[in-house]
Write a structure and sequence with these properties.
377 residues; Serine Threonine Protein Phosphatase 5, Tetratricopeptide repeat; 2 domains; two-stranded antiparallel ribbon; globular
Amino acid sequence: MSQSPRNTDTVPPPSESALQQLFAEAVQAHQNADLDTARRLYEEILRHANSPQVACNLATVLRAQGATRDAEKIYRDVILEKPDFPEAHGGLGNTLRDLGDLEGAVAAFSRALAQNPDYRDAHVNIGNVLQGMGRYDEAAQHFVRALDLRPDDEETRFTLAAIQGETRETAPLAYTKNLFDSYADRFDAHLTGELQYAVPTLMRDTINLVRAEAEDRQKLRVVDLGCGTGLCAAAVVDLASSIHGVDIAPRMVAKAQTLGIYADVACDDVVTYLGAQDRAFDLALAGDVFIYVGDMAPCLEAAANALVPGGYFAFSVEHRDEPGFALQPTARFAHAPSYIAATAANAGFEVIKQQDIVVRLDRGKPLRGDLYVLRLR
């Protein structure tokens, strides 16, 4: 870090060693996801010293906090000052992706890779953007290179397998955890706004219809599987005597806990969590959980343990016309109705409602799905 000149008559500027100590504390806070502290410390350093690295770190924090335009400006300012800084181009690429400028993101990642062809994160990130754009062959090239650089990266290996049409039973837990941890701060706005995600409302309406047909008016003990930021729970809160959440992503759990509608929120795998419950719930919800799970049998069997007899399990899937389930090039799973009916029956459930739905928009087009309500026999 190089200190900028300061005109002060009373307080001397921090020494180089003091600034280094502040930087170490900021990085530690950043790594611990204490973003407010990290931001304050990075900003304090930049008041006394000009450091492109610290500025990029600050931009990364701002992006994580949802201040995406502020992050973009910092990255662009750093690039103007230091054009040969691949991490700044990579950070700008991530920010432009968040803003929906996918072509701009690809260009930024490409500039980063032109400066450092072994920049593994840029290969992964440009691969993810290209995959989301449906440019699968190009994406695969970057994922292959990323695996050359780090062969033990199971998340990238899973994504490459999806593009190459390989079979998988489920997504790695680390893949789902990291995907949603990185998505936590912009999840609600992106999903319900740009992607027009309507599953929570559709799920609530379908549950109401099922219960009306059964003349079931009791308040329900609800478990929200893969609860995310609480969109499904919020949709059914007036039906519930209590709502319990579980999610594999710690930052999603932290977001859900702030809502004040959950009795508790566990950070755990849903199968492990359900297996530890015994007839504890009347209703289980799983909004867009099974798009990251191919083989549904373990979850349905665990849910049968956690629900009371006659309890309901409501969930959404992406639709598949062919039998069984499949990992798609999007790295999401799709399930056939015949597979769900058979797997549900084997776990002790009956399908009492199946509804064709539009899950959300995908590249601007409606994404076909199915909404199910099962009842435990």
